[in-house]
Amino acid sequence: xxxxxxxxxxxxxxxxxxxxxxxxxxxxxxxxxxxxxxxxxxxxxxxxxxxxxxxxxxxxxxxxxxxxxxxxxxxxxxxxxxxxxxxxxxxxxxxxxxxxxxxxxxxxxxxxxxxxxxxxxxxxxxxxxxxxxxxxxxxxxxxxxxxxxxxxxxxxxxxxxxxxxxxxxxxxxxxxxxxxxxxxxxxxxxxxxxxxxxxxxxxxxxxxxxxxxxxxxxxxxxxxxxxxxxxxxxxxxxxxxxxxxxxxxxxxxxxxxxxxxxxxxxxxxxxxxxxxxx
Length: 278
Fold this sequence. Notes:
Blueprint: H1 4-21, H2 24-55, H3 59-72, H4 75-86, H5 96-120, H6 129-164, H7 168-197, H8 205-241, H9 245-270
């Protein structure tokens, strides 16, 4: 076949990563990470809303949290989360307890990720528990800072829309467009930091930057997949999980997103070795 010289090298490069995603090991890492994301998710939202409301005293930034939720979760799931966050008794003033709970649960996100990235790069020695906690804490502050920066950009945009008198569907469309323009580069930056600094070895920044960009765009595309299948998925989860359906939705999408992140790590590590077919 004339296309065979093109197709075979492409398939040879992609096949090992697809095979990796079907292995039990990848699913264990992804499920452990997704469980930690589910535990940290609501405390993180509470801290973000409280920070914008009680520290920044910025209504537009608080509203940006709700815009982000509507962007990540389609339909009933997003409306449910936004409704509960807007209840005045659901989001207390920012306190030490919420911060400690967030730090404790969010640390669990990076523990299985480090082990998975180490395995992908062929690293046999993981960081000690204490070092892992310190590194995870640094990632929490870095990723939290990027999230706050994204909210601030969106808040400034909302203030501009209100000042310009743009309302209705046009104002909402501009608001969501600006959020995506701000959020995607910051998400790519967070992925770049994870691929670069989380493995327990030296990684060349130039090697992981393109993969972070591609993975960030794939994760953005998954949001549109969610929009398409959300009604069917929510109907099924409502029948089978009832009051737990929203938690299960967060767990499922975190699991899928983690597999995409791990695929990027596996691809980078394989093609970072001297023998690309090893």
